[in-house]
């Protein structure tokens, strides 16, 4: 979400925005009607600002659908995570703060439990990106995943930024490697373009995938994907 609208970026570039709807609530209802059992929301404005910007839109979505919602973007304090969970969000995704201050994750898990905290690990050329993907840290995705596991994380959303919004296929091998070497629930994000991409992830033991642009561009049908893989 950006400026209260449902959008997609390409490779995380904020000057490459395509608006799909002025009403994210309607879009959320549409995906649920097609079989979605979990919704993934990102507050793009919040990711840049460092605090939630579209929280009221997120609240409206949570109140309008019957499936669990996970949300990320600008959640960088204990209070921000608590506020998001109090809106009814099932899981909050921590990206920048997880990379810059891994001990923060331990604090969150001690307060809210491992099922409500997700580490968002976004990599470019193997290195973790932070602050709305504007900066690169010195951490590799694998090193950060292992640190997150040490602190109690069970779920990781892994995004290969070079694939994001490109419909070029997910980075299957990198996601498989993270899954096998960490034992975590690694959710693939970025590049999913067709049913064959989902099949490749499934065949390699990857437990989940986030589908964005492929749905909006009608490259695959959500109902068919849910029926095959859930």
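Q: What amino acid sequence fits the structure above?
A:
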């Amino acid at each position: 979400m950006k400026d209260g609208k449902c959008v997609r970026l390409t490779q995380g570039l904020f000057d490459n925005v395509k608006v799909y709807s002025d009403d994210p609530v309607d879009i959320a209802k549409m995906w649920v009607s097609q079989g979605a059992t979990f919704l993934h929301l990102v507050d793009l404005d919040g990711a840049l600002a460092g605090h939630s910007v579209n929280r009221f839109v997120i609240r409206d979505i949570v109140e309008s659908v019957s499936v669990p919602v996970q949300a990320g973007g600008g959640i960088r304090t204990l209070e921000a995570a608590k506020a998001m969970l109090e809106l009814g969000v099932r899981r909050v995704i921590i990206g920048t703060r997880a990379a810059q201050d891994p001990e923060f994750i331990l604090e969150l898990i001690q307060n809210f439990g491992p099922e409500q905290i997700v580490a968002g690990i976004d990599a470019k050329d193997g290195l973790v990106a932070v602050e709305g993907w504007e900066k690169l840290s010195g951490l590799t995705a694998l090193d950060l995943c292992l640190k997150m596991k040490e602190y109690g994380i069970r779920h990781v959303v892994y995004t290969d930024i070079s694939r994001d919004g490109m419909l070029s296929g997910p980075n299957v091998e990198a996601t498989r490697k993270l899954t096998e070497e960490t034992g975590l629930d690694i959710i693939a994000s970025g590049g999913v373009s067709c049913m064959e991409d989902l099949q490749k992830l499934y065949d390699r033991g990857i437990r989940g995938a986030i589908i964005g642009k492929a749905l909006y561009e009608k490259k695959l049908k959500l109902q068919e994907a849910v029926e095959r893989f859930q």
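Q: And what stands out in the fold?
A: The chain has one domain: 6-229.
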